[in-house]
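Hi all, posting the design record for the shared folder.

TITLE: backbone redesign
STEP: 1 of 1
STRUCTURE INPUT:
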């Protein structure tokens, strides 16, 4: 039987953005506009067929401005704004929760919001990363450099272990693996559940030792 997890309130993303300094809000607005136009063009005419120049023109910026926000064309697909928010929520979970329980509670707080607000964007990004070889490679790099590094640090903190602990490393990749599995199962429509529920199911399954 799985352990009941406490609900943790989360500010809407727009509320968090509204509290940012004006300069940061403007930068984020531009970043989101670039990404929105890029994903729309990728969905319409294909990833390889879409150029940075076309994205820049659609967003009414210069190509050099594009590269100030996204170092590569691949990054406009694989980058999102949620890692820092997830880190904040994870660290705010009650101290008695294990790393996996804290992560489940964090995902239960933030994933429904992402699913509600960014469903189309999530769908396009997953389709692209599953079908474009260059994006699959960059997604792995981004996971290793970003999400994996943040999750490993948070796990080590909560478990009271060094970040270099091999078991912390193994746990982190196991978590990312079952989360990725949920995302691609959801994209394929098997089973037909909401993405937040599928992620939570897979994390709970991992917590039980993946019995088959």
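Okay, here is what came back for every position:
SEQUENCE:
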């Amino acid at each position: 039987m799985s352990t009941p997890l406490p609900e943790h309130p989360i500010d809407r993303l727009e509320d968090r953005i509204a509290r940012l300094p004006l300069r940061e809000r403007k930068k984020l607005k531009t970043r989101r506009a670039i990404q929105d136009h890029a994903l729309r063009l990728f969905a319409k005419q294909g990833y390889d067929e879409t150029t940075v120049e076309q994205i820049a023109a659609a967003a009414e910026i210069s190509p050099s401005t594009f590269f100030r926000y996204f170092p590569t064309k691949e990054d406009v697909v694989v980058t999102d704004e949620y890692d820092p928010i997830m880190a904040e929520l994870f660290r705010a979970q009650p101290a008695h929760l294990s790393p996996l329980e804290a992560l489940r509670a964090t995902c239960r707080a933030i994933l429904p919001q992402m699913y509600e607000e960014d469903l189309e964007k999530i769908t396009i990004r997953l389709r692209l990363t599953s079908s474009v070889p260059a994006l699959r490679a960059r997604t792995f790099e981004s996971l290793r450099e970003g999400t994996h590094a943040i999750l490993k640090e948070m796990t080590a903190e909560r478990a009271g272990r060094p970040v270099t602990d091999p078991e912390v490393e193994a746990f982190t990749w196991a978590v990312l693996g079952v989360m990725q599995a949920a995302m691609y199962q959801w994209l394929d429509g098997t089973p037909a559940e909401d993405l937040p529920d599928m992620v939570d199911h897979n994390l709970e399954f991992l917590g039980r030792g993946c019995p088959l």
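COMMENT: The chain is about 75% helix and 0% strand.
Let me know if anyone wants the other runs.
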